[in-house]
Structure formats: structure tokens, C-alpha cells
Amino acid sequence: MSQKIIHSGTIETISGNDMRVRIVQASACASCKVAAQCHASEQKEKLVDVYHVRDIQQFAIGETVTLIASSQTGMNAVLVAFVIPFLIMVTAVFGCSKLTDSEPVMALSGILFLIPYYIVLFLYRDRLKERFAFQVEKINNN
Q1: Helix (H, G, I), strand (E, B) or coil at 99
Q2: Of 5, 17, 34, 117, which has the fewest CB atoms closer than 10 Å, so is most exposed?
Q3: How does 68-80 read in b/e, with b if 16+ C-beta sit within 10 Å?
Q4: CA–CA distance from 90 to each of 26, 65, 101, 117 (Å)?
Q5: CA–CA separation, 109 and 97 (whole Å)
Q6: Is residue 29 scored above 70 in pLDDT?
Q7: pLDDT digits (tens, 9 = 90+) for 65-122
């Protein structure tokens, strides 16, 4: 499975070997001709940090570039951001339900058990930053 996540964006800032790129994330119907009239389209601007860019001197602020990440990177990000916290909460709630019949205590335990997980994520943020990184490529204007 060699699918890639690809976004086109504009370089906002360059600092050292890092850059910040503005991308426009649009829903599937945002490009429809009547999207403005039906109000179902959704379009958001996002800033993406790209770290450790090779040959950064070939890029300029305002230039349009392509951001690329593997689909496996996207799946790993979903795992870390949604699946693992969900499993921690469900395990904590069901584990607490065996000890007590108090629903507020079960709900609070589900939330409290997430605190150590998010502390670990915070402590390993630099490693995660490198693991979930985009690569940047120039757009060839022939």
C-alpha cells in the first residue's frame, strides 16, 4: 500500500530548516459550481509545520508547494489521536464499573485515566513531530 496524502499549499514562513505551509482543506463538494448557493460545502485554512527540509534555500515565502505524507502516517496519527484514547477511556470505565455502581465515578475515571496518556504524548512530542511529518516538494511549472 503505497498511497500518499497530498496537499497543495503556500509557504508562509521559513525558519532554519523548517517551514510553515498554509493549505486549504476542502470537503468534496467545495469545488462544485453551486457550492456557494447550497451551503453544504466546507473549506478551512490550516497551517502545517514541515521540519528538517533538505535544500531549504530552494524554497521562497509565497511559493506554492506540495506536501506529501504516506497513508500509513495518517493511519498512525488517527491511532494515536483517537483509537488509543478511546480504548483507555472504555477500559477505565468498564474496569471502574466492576468496582462501583456510581456512574459519575465511572465517567470521571475514564477522563482521569487519559491524563497520563496525554502527559506521555507531551513528553514525546518531539519524537512524534518527526514521526508524523510531511515532506515538501516544489511544484514543477514547465
Answers
A1: helix
A2: 34
A3: ebeeebeeeeeee
A4: 33, 41, 15, 14
A5: 10
A6: no
A7: 998 888 888 899 999 999 999 999 999 999 999 999 999 999 999 999 999 999 999 9
Question: Which one-letter amino acid corresponds to residue 86?
Answer: F
Burial of 33 (0-12, 13-18, 19+ CB in 10 A): exposed
E-strand spans in the chain? 4-15, 18-26, 43-50, 64-70, 135-138
Per-residue cell: 76: 498512525
Residue with cell 489521536: 81
Confidence of residue 30 (pLDDT cuts 50, 70, 90): low
The one-letter amino acid code at 74 reads G
Number of helical (H) and strand (E) elements in the chain, helices listed first:
6, 5
In order of 11, 17, 134, the CA distances from 131 in angstroms are 21, 17, 9
